[in-house]
Write a structure and sequence with these properties.
The protein has helices spanning 19-27, 30-39, 43-50, 55-65, 70-78, 91-100, 116-122, 135-138, 145-154, 170-178, 189-198, and strands at residues 5-8, 15-17, 84-87, 105-109, 131-134, 163-167, 182-185. By secondary structure, the protein is α/β, with parallel strands linked by helices. It has two domains: 5-16 and 86-198, Rossmann fold; 18-84, no CATH class.
Length: 205
Protein backbone atom coordinates (compact mmCIF):
# COMPACT_ATOMS: atom_id res chain seq x y z
CA UNK A 1 0.00 0.00 0.00
CA UNK A 2 1.46 3.37 -1.01
CA UNK A 3 1.28 6.67 0.83
CA UNK A 4 -1.54 8.97 -0.25
CA UNK A 5 -1.91 11.38 2.71
CA UNK A 6 0.68 13.82 4.06
CA UNK A 7 0.78 14.73 7.75
CA UNK A 8 3.03 17.69 8.58
CA UNK A 9 4.63 18.82 11.79
CA UNK A 10 4.51 22.64 11.83
CA UNK A 11 7.43 24.12 13.81
CA UNK A 12 10.69 23.86 11.89
CA UNK A 13 9.00 21.93 9.11
CA UNK A 14 6.47 24.39 7.67
CA UNK A 15 7.29 27.44 9.79
CA UNK A 16 10.70 28.52 11.10
CA UNK A 17 10.43 28.74 14.90
CA UNK A 18 13.49 30.04 16.74
CA UNK A 19 12.93 31.52 20.22
CA UNK A 20 16.67 32.11 20.55
CA UNK A 21 16.45 34.64 17.72
CA UNK A 22 13.87 36.63 19.69
CA UNK A 23 16.06 36.67 22.77
CA UNK A 24 19.18 37.49 20.80
CA UNK A 25 17.36 40.64 19.71
CA UNK A 26 16.11 41.37 23.22
CA UNK A 27 19.52 40.84 24.87
CA UNK A 28 21.62 42.01 21.93
CA UNK A 29 23.75 38.92 22.53
CA UNK A 30 23.28 35.43 21.07
CA UNK A 31 25.27 33.77 23.85
CA UNK A 32 23.01 35.36 26.48
CA UNK A 33 19.97 34.24 24.49
CA UNK A 34 21.29 30.68 24.41
CA UNK A 35 21.87 30.80 28.17
CA UNK A 36 18.36 32.14 28.78
CA UNK A 37 16.69 29.43 26.69
CA UNK A 38 18.85 26.70 28.20
CA UNK A 39 18.40 27.87 31.81
CA UNK A 40 15.16 29.83 32.26
CA UNK A 41 12.63 29.54 29.43
CA UNK A 42 13.66 25.99 28.64
CA UNK A 43 12.12 23.58 26.17
CA UNK A 44 10.90 21.47 29.12
CA UNK A 45 9.09 24.54 30.49
CA UNK A 46 7.62 25.36 27.09
CA UNK A 47 6.45 21.78 26.62
CA UNK A 48 4.08 22.35 29.53
CA UNK A 49 2.15 24.75 27.26
CA UNK A 50 2.19 22.17 24.48
CA UNK A 51 0.62 19.74 26.95
CA UNK A 52 -2.20 22.14 27.79
CA UNK A 53 -1.00 24.31 30.68
CA UNK A 54 -1.88 28.01 30.52
CA UNK A 55 0.67 30.79 30.11
CA UNK A 56 -1.29 32.59 32.83
CA UNK A 57 -0.11 29.87 35.23
CA UNK A 58 3.40 29.12 34.00
CA UNK A 59 4.69 32.64 33.39
CA UNK A 60 4.05 34.12 36.87
CA UNK A 61 5.45 30.95 38.43
CA UNK A 62 8.67 31.30 36.44
CA UNK A 63 8.85 35.05 37.04
CA UNK A 64 8.65 34.43 40.78
CA UNK A 65 11.73 32.22 40.54
CA UNK A 66 13.61 34.62 38.25
CA UNK A 67 12.33 38.14 39.00
CA UNK A 68 15.29 39.81 37.27
CA UNK A 69 14.10 38.30 34.00
CA UNK A 70 10.36 38.85 34.48
CA UNK A 71 9.98 41.03 31.38
CA UNK A 72 11.87 38.56 29.19
CA UNK A 73 9.80 35.67 30.50
CA UNK A 74 6.58 37.54 29.71
CA UNK A 75 7.85 38.09 26.17
CA UNK A 76 7.60 34.35 25.51
CA UNK A 77 3.86 34.92 25.22
CA UNK A 78 3.54 38.60 24.33
CA UNK A 79 6.13 38.39 21.53
CA UNK A 80 5.35 34.84 20.45
CA UNK A 81 5.08 35.63 16.76
CA UNK A 82 8.47 37.37 16.87
CA UNK A 83 10.02 33.93 17.42
CA UNK A 84 9.25 33.00 13.81
CA UNK A 85 11.37 33.70 10.75
CA UNK A 86 8.66 33.05 8.17
CA UNK A 87 8.11 29.80 6.36
CA UNK A 88 10.82 27.19 6.20
CA UNK A 89 12.26 27.88 2.72
CA UNK A 90 10.32 26.13 0.00
CA UNK A 91 7.75 24.48 2.23
CA UNK A 92 4.87 26.90 1.66
CA UNK A 93 5.23 26.36 -2.07
CA UNK A 94 5.34 22.61 -1.58
CA UNK A 95 2.11 22.62 0.43
CA UNK A 96 0.35 24.57 -2.32
CA UNK A 97 1.63 22.18 -4.98
CA UNK A 98 0.37 19.19 -3.02
CA UNK A 99 -2.99 20.90 -2.49
CA UNK A 100 -3.28 21.59 -6.22
CA UNK A 101 -2.46 17.94 -6.90
CA UNK A 102 -5.38 16.88 -4.70
CA UNK A 103 -3.28 15.26 -1.97
CA UNK A 104 -5.04 15.21 1.43
CA UNK A 105 -2.97 17.35 3.83
CA UNK A 106 -3.06 17.44 7.63
CA UNK A 107 -1.00 18.78 10.52
CA UNK A 108 0.15 17.42 13.87
CA UNK A 109 1.89 19.93 16.12
CA UNK A 110 3.13 20.25 19.66
CA UNK A 111 1.60 23.68 20.26
CA UNK A 112 -0.32 25.53 22.93
CA UNK A 113 -4.00 25.76 22.11
CA UNK A 114 -3.95 29.36 23.38
CA UNK A 115 -1.73 30.52 20.54
CA UNK A 116 -2.76 28.15 17.77
CA UNK A 117 -5.18 30.47 15.96
CA UNK A 118 -2.84 33.46 15.94
CA UNK A 119 -0.03 31.24 14.69
CA UNK A 120 -2.16 29.80 11.90
CA UNK A 121 -3.43 33.24 10.90
CA UNK A 122 0.14 34.57 10.74
CA UNK A 123 1.04 31.78 8.31
CA UNK A 124 -1.98 31.33 6.02
CA UNK A 125 -0.60 28.28 4.24
CA UNK A 126 -1.45 26.31 7.40
CA UNK A 127 -5.11 26.94 6.57
CA UNK A 128 -4.56 24.90 3.41
CA UNK A 129 -4.33 21.81 5.64
CA UNK A 130 -7.64 20.04 6.13
CA UNK A 131 -7.15 19.76 9.88
CA UNK A 132 -4.40 20.28 12.45
CA UNK A 133 -4.15 18.26 15.65
CA UNK A 134 -2.86 20.65 18.34
CA UNK A 135 -1.29 18.94 21.33
CA UNK A 136 -2.39 21.60 23.79
CA UNK A 137 -6.03 21.05 22.85
CA UNK A 138 -5.66 17.29 23.27
CA UNK A 139 -3.59 17.34 26.46
CA UNK A 140 -0.97 15.00 25.04
CA UNK A 141 2.28 15.73 23.19
CA UNK A 142 4.43 13.95 20.63
CA UNK A 143 5.96 11.41 20.86
CA UNK A 144 3.20 9.95 23.06
CA UNK A 145 1.53 7.19 20.98
CA UNK A 146 -1.92 8.51 21.84
CA UNK A 147 -1.52 11.65 19.76
CA UNK A 148 -0.81 9.66 16.61
CA UNK A 149 -4.02 7.71 17.12
CA UNK A 150 -5.87 10.99 17.59
CA UNK A 151 -4.40 12.20 14.29
CA UNK A 152 -5.46 9.02 12.50
CA UNK A 153 -8.96 9.34 13.93
CA UNK A 154 -9.18 12.97 12.80
CA UNK A 155 -8.05 11.98 9.30
CA UNK A 156 -10.95 9.55 9.06
CA UNK A 157 -9.13 6.40 10.18
CA UNK A 158 -7.08 5.70 7.04
CA UNK A 159 -4.74 2.72 6.94
CA UNK A 160 -1.70 4.08 8.85
CA UNK A 161 0.70 2.97 6.14
CA UNK A 162 -0.96 5.37 3.70
CA UNK A 163 0.11 8.36 5.86
CA UNK A 164 3.45 10.06 5.30
CA UNK A 165 4.45 11.91 8.47
CA UNK A 166 7.10 14.65 8.19
CA UNK A 167 8.78 15.90 11.38
CA UNK A 168 12.17 17.35 12.32
CA UNK A 169 12.63 15.19 15.43
CA UNK A 170 13.69 11.58 15.22
CA UNK A 171 11.80 10.55 18.37
CA UNK A 172 8.57 11.83 16.83
CA UNK A 173 9.29 9.98 13.59
CA UNK A 174 9.99 6.74 15.44
CA UNK A 175 6.70 7.04 17.32
CA UNK A 176 4.79 7.64 14.08
CA UNK A 177 6.43 4.59 12.53
CA UNK A 178 5.46 2.55 15.59
CA UNK A 179 1.87 3.64 14.89
CA UNK A 180 2.23 2.25 11.36
CA UNK A 181 2.83 5.50 9.49
CA UNK A 182 5.65 6.14 7.03
CA UNK A 183 8.10 8.58 8.61
CA UNK A 184 10.32 11.17 6.92
CA UNK A 185 12.87 13.03 9.02
CA UNK A 186 12.79 16.62 7.81
CA UNK A 187 16.07 18.00 6.48
CA UNK A 188 14.75 20.60 4.06
CA UNK A 189 12.23 21.10 1.28
CA UNK A 190 14.48 19.53 -1.35
CA UNK A 191 14.57 16.10 0.27
CA UNK A 192 10.84 16.24 1.06
CA UNK A 193 10.11 16.98 -2.58
CA UNK A 194 12.28 14.08 -3.67
CA UNK A 195 10.41 11.77 -1.30
CA UNK A 196 7.02 13.00 -2.56
CA UNK A 197 8.05 12.52 -6.19
CA UNK A 198 9.30 9.02 -5.43
CA UNK A 199 6.00 8.25 -3.67
CA UNK A 200 4.06 9.46 -6.71
CA UNK A 201 2.41 12.33 -4.86
CA UNK A 202 4.09 15.03 -6.94
CA UNK A 203 5.23 15.08 -10.56
CA UNK A 204 8.91 15.51 -11.24
CA UNK A 205 9.80 19.00 -12.49
Amino acid sequence: MTTSIVLFDLGNVLIDWDPRALYARRFGDRAKADWFCDTICTLAWHTRHDAGESFADTIPELQARHPDYAEHIAAWRSEWLDMFNGYVPGMDTLVLELKAAGVPLFGLSNLSAEIADETFNAFPVIHELEDVVVSGAEGVVKPDPRIYQIALDRMGCPAPETVLFIDDRLDNIRAAEAAGMVGHLFEGAKTVREHLVHAGLLARH
